[in-house]
Design a protein that fits this description.
mainly alpha; 8 helices; globular
Length: about 170
Amino acid sequence: MNIEKPITTTKKAVQGMAEQIALNEKLNSPQEKHYKKAFSLLRLTKELNPRGFEKIVSIGAIGKEMKDEMGATLYKTFDEVWKDCTRGFGRNIIEVKSRLVNENPKIPLDELSNELSVFYNSYLNAKAEVLKKDPRILSSFKGKEELLNKVLKTSITSISTAFLDNWRNF
């Protein structure tokens, strides 16, 4: 593993993943089953895609740090609005990929990757602007706009990096 502090980083990632799984179940804190699920997901990823494993661990650790910096309440609001803003993205990226391949069946993988990356980054940046104008975000992050911008920038960079490494799965 090329992660600078592998044990610390992996612990942060597992903690963050377990907290997110619990949050998705509308729970305030993770239970043992959430940690087990996080470990299982990481173990499976490591077996199937070692490079992807490192990315997921790094992104998970960054996400945990951002969550800790925001605090639980701001994070919940941010997470809820982000999910609302990006709902249906998987369908959108599949449609764009299909359209690009249908328009040019012999499109080189590098060119397809670049086209999808341009779409993906533009999509995420547009959704970030929508998120910034959401009333829940405006009220929750009032006076904390710098933190919001930092979280958005970090989120978009992390998500984009993960996407570029895994776009063929769409």
